Amino acid sequence: MGYTLPMYSIVGKVREELQRESKEEVRESNRRFFKEEVRLYGVKAPQVERIAKTLFKDIRSEGKTRIFSLCEELLSTGYLEEGFVACHWSYALRLAYEPQDFYVFERWVNRYVTNWAVCDTFCNHTVGAFLETYPEYVKELYRWAKSENRWVRRASAVSLIVPAKRGSYLAEAFFIADLLLLDPEDLVQKGYGWLLKVASLAHPSEVFEFVMNRKARMPRTALRYAIEKMPREWKNRVMAQ
Questions:
Q1: What pTM does this model have?
Q2: Which of 116, 128, 204, 224 is the most exposed place for a label (fewest CB within 10 A)?
Q3: φ, ψ (nearest 5 deg) of residue 79
Q4: pLDDT tens digits along 183-237
Q5: In 3D, which of 80, 78, 63 has the Cα closest to residue 26?
Q6: How far apart are CA 89 and CA 63, in angstroms?
Q7: Cross-strand pairs, 79
Q8: On the CB side of 34, how many CA atoms lie within 13 Å of its CA?
């Protein structure tokens, strides 16, 4: 016990496993989901998750600081699947989160998130779990919503997706949606529209009223996402001129 695995051997093992599972047809299929350039091995999500879980057993005893360093190394390469492994590992440590970890996660979003898939996976789970443990940090997302980085702005909304499913942080979700209301980026619009849609499951009338009061200004992309789970009658009222 007490033996520390070299970082390069762990990261190298991740890459070896991903390369072994990679398929050209998967790579080309997945590329179609992104407008921006994305580095891909071509491994399906369930296989990536299996690799992440299997290799996490080898590093479980390494400690949070060490594992976070490994996560950052994987995120820094820009490969989608390596980013997913980092997301799985950071979320696996959720019971060990401490307040200062927020700023580690913030740095990762600022520096390494370059597509919607890693943004959503990381923020839904790792950041979302952190915010449920430390709700006093939710207001830090207001800064994210004003960022020049579109992925940070999307992150401000999608970090509340899982708590919103449980009915939490409605006022904060509304505040973020207002900050992002006229965002020019469609992926940001989809992000806060998704947050409103999820919030509507627990608070249907409140979200309906919020959307009705802003429907004349809200971009159609965000609007359609927000009302997706509402009754048809409500959808018709929102979409009526």
A1: 0.92
A2: 204
A3: -75, 130
A4: 999 999 999 999 999 999 999 999 999 999 999 999 999 999 999 999 999 999 9
A5: 80
A6: 12
A7: 39
A8: 17
